[in-house]
Amino acid sequence: MQDKVSPAEWQARIDCAACYRLVAHYGMADMMANHISVRVPGEESFLINPYGMMYEEMTASALIKVDIEGNILGKPDYGDFDFGINRAGYVIHSAVHHAKPEIECVIHTHTWPGMAISSLECGLLPMTQTAMRFTRISYHEYEGVVLNTDEQARLLANLGDNNAMILRNHGLLTVGRTVGEAFNALHRLELSCKAQIAAMSCNTPLHPVPQKVLDETFQNYQPNVRRPYGVMEWPALLRMLDRLDPTYAE
């Protein structure tokens, strides 16, 4: 696909495929379910996974290019498998990309820690320093499999200006102005969910943190007081992928 797309789109494809491989590497994939999308620079279109491929086999050329209306604009020849896109993936991701042009990447997962926390009435607790980054995380009530576009407005309203949201009884969603930023949010959110489940499983009272400290810690994680997430981490993650299996960039 490299000679069929612009240099900007090819770079977006590389980053998107890398994100799929990283989600698989860190044990956050659900076989061929779920979705990661990356906006094509300068276009009202985005890249998303072909429904039927595993995250660990995703490559830059394998991704499908879709417009906001769900029309497939470009995909490779998959041979005997004429892969398309997942309907729920289109509904969720097109909503964000259409309403938030500043967002480059959207990630949605069904990890066991994310699903567990999404099912707890208390939701995510700011009980660790990592979780305090998400003290004001968004929540979206479960309405069934996300197949209808009329849910998009409610999903966007609940997301607001946050970069992370817990889909109740469902899973996790993160967004970012870069792929690295979105992945950073997902990785930290996943760790927060795991830590909470581990602590609550001990069946002993949790140690509370004063609200003043929670507020100050949350503020320290905000974009206006620190460098953007992913600036340091993303190049290092790509170096790790290059050592493990550089075929993501093909």
UniProtKB/TrEMBL annotation:
InterPro entries tied to this protein: Aldolase-II_Adducin_sf, Aldolase_II/adducin_N, Aldolase_II/adducin_N_sf
Protein name as catalogued: Class II aldolase/adducin family protein
Top-rank taxon, per record: Bacteria
SUPFAM superfamilies in UniProt: AraD/HMP-PK domain-like
Family indicated by similarity: Belongs to the aldolase class II family.
Lineage, uppermost ranks: Bacteria, Pseudomonadati, Pseudomonadota, Alphaproteobacteria, Acetobacterales
Organism of derivation: Roseomonas indoligenes
GO molecular function: actin filament binding
GO CC terms, sorted: cytoskeleton
Class II aldolase/adducin N-terminal domain segment(s): 14-197
PANTHER family attached to this UniProt entry: ADDUCIN, PROTEIN HU-LI TAI SHAO
